[in-house]
Amino acid sequence: MNGAEISRFLYDAKRFILQNRDIVDNAPLQLYCAGIIFSPETSIIRNTFKEQRSGWLYGLPKVRSDWNPQLQTLEGHSEWVNAVAFSADSRLLASASNDRTVRLWDPATGEHRQTLEGRGGWVNSVAFSADGRLLASASDDCTVRLWDPATGEHRQTLEGHGGWVNSVAFSADGRLLASASDDRTVRLWDPATGEHRLTLKGHGDWVNAVAFSADGRLLASASDDCTVRLWDPATGEHRQTLEGHGDWVNAVTFSADCRLLASASDDCTVSLWDPATGKHRQTLEGHGGWVRAVAFSADGRLLASASNDRTVRLWDPATGEHRQTLEGHGGWVNTVAFSADGRLLASASNDRTVRLWDPATGEHKQTLNSNSILTELCFSSDNHYLHTDKGILCLSSVSFSLPSPSPTLPHVIFIKGNWITKNNENLLWLPYDYRGCSALNGDRLAIGARCGLVIVIQLRF
Predict the structure, then answer these.
(1) Which of 161, 238, 241, 357 has its CA 20 to 30 A from that of 26?
(2) What topology is assigned to 76-367 in CATH?
(3) What is the residue extent of each domain of the chain?
(4) What is the pLDDT of residues 361-398, one digit of tens each?
């Protein structure tokens, strides 16, 4: 092997490991089965070890020709994921979910570090302090909680809001924490002591998001009253009201140099503003659904937007040019966040996953799971089996009385969660992108996969 061949092999091995992390953790022998057959057709690992696959796989499914932009998908939440945030050193990623938990991950490997529990409602937002010593979470139980992300220890609960808390943000120096609520107010807190400092009033409807400028001189708030308001966080003085959106404003963020403010709206657009003057600069159009979140890269060269159209879009904020559309989520995309070094972009979705991307190339890096939902049922003629959209169910395991199972179907194939099973035994692990609706005909199993492919697997027993 020459240097170029070794480099290609190592790159392919890295992608193979990232795609199959769940398999390594839960069923390592599946690397020789699912790992190989669901890797791209041009994968060096696939073609090197393809003869090692299980003999019962007679016909291999059609898969992608090459690795796609997605690097990893982080799975584990049991409900919608509403928010994600990187620590300043990029060593931790936090995700907030309707399952009432916050999860901490290692974004380099996709490893789950901790689950922070104790909330009484959905968790809507998470934010790290700049020094990484505190993590704040906002919840539907009308509180803000402060955590130690190194240990997972709960530090304080900040109470006072009269409605759901939708967003939290630390000032750059870590001396202030802002929270936005359905009670139409923004509250400012001292995160070191938990002391309430100020309540900012003026919005005519729910306040959905807050963001500090990097120099700490401005605080922006976004509301269902279709406006963005700018405040002086030191005094609580109202500076300006930015008008122009045609629907609810869901998110706001400042660029690192404080020269631009981006706002995301249910009018399916992103607006760019000059926060010093309040002047409207540009409107970014292209999303096919509500825009729920926006984030600038640290160098200000990219802006990411997340939408109900199940995509993330990347833009050049200087020109308004659309750079890329990142596809793969199976539900609304609720939030996006860049790592501090700009090498990773995280997106969270109602499909209960967090996806990691390379924003420079659009490459996808990692994903996590849920159980099957059956949409089609049909009894076999002898009432011993149910034919479903996920395969065949043997009714001998059902609690009511039945004669012994018919010998005409010796191998009961069924898709159960992320597994293809035979006679209730796990047979083949399905990677996240290759799960979806399915149908079984004889020895052929067809799956309409999340990645957009229809794959057919021929089984031989």
Answers:
(1) 357
(2) Methylamine Dehydrogenase; Chain H (2.130.10)
(3) 3-51, 76-367, 377-459
(4) 998 876 533 333 333 333 344 444 444 444 444 433 33
